[in-house]
Design brief:
elongated; about 100 residues; about 15% strand; 2 domains; YefM-like fold; single chain
Length: about 100
């Protein structure tokens, strides 16, 4: 983060929104918008936002997986593959 470039007032946003959007899309760095000297919002480009959401979702999956491991809610690999194969065979024979 480059403080002078990445923190802007709401009046700056109002008067130079096109410039600010160009900067955000070029640098892929979020910009903090202040109002009365206090941080009020963060603006970021859509691509970075999507990547952040994907990363957060993966972290949630990992957290759930870690909890399952700690609680002993696991299945041996060989058992899982056998269950998958059995289910696939059942689906094939139904056709």
């Amino acid at each position: 983060m480059k403080i002078k470039e990445d923190i802007k007032s709401i009046s700056y946003l109002k008067s130079r929104s096109a410039e600010l959007l160009a900067q955000i899309n070029e640098t892929h760095r979020p910009v903090i918008i202040t109002q009365n000297g206090e941080p009020r919002a963060v603006i970021q480009d859509a691509e970075s936002y999507e990547k952040m959401v994907t990363s957060l979702n993966l972290m949630k999956i990992l957290a759930h997986s870690e909890k399952d491991i700690q609680e002993g809610n696991t299945v041996k690999q060989a058992t899982l593959f056998t269950q998958i194969e059995d289910n696939l065979l059942k689906k094939k024979t139904k056709k």
